[in-house]
């Protein structure tokens, strides 16, 4: 994991955004660098539908009660409804 740890967080986030939502979530247990990168909106915005901004207001109250990013919060609430 040392090699990935040398990458800038933005690069790790970009790599994670090319995986699946499940893989991005699981990667957060690898290291604190991965945990930080996996919580970036860049990662979670790729997993959301193009019109996610139109439905974001429904998740604002959920986001206020959590420490995770807004995109992650929105994705999680959408998955729970599927």
TrEMBL record:
Protein origin, superkingdom: Eukaryota
PROSITE patterns to which the protein is assigned, alphabetical: FBOX
InterPro entries on file: F-box-like_dom_sf, F-box_dom
Domain F-box residue range list: 1-47
Pfam families assigned: F-box (PF00646)
Descriptive protein name: F-box protein PP2-B7
């Amino acid at each position: 994991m040392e090699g990935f740890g040398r990458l800038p967080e933005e690069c790790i986030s970009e790599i994670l955004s090319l995986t699946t939502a499940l893989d991005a979530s699981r990667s957060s247990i690898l290291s604190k660098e991965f945990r930080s990168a996996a919580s970036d909106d860049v990662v979670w915005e790729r997993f959301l539908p193009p019109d996610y901004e139109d439905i974001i207001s429904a998740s604002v109250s959920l986001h206020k009660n959590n420490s995770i990013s807004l995109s992650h919060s929105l994705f999680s609430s959408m998955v729970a409804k599927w």
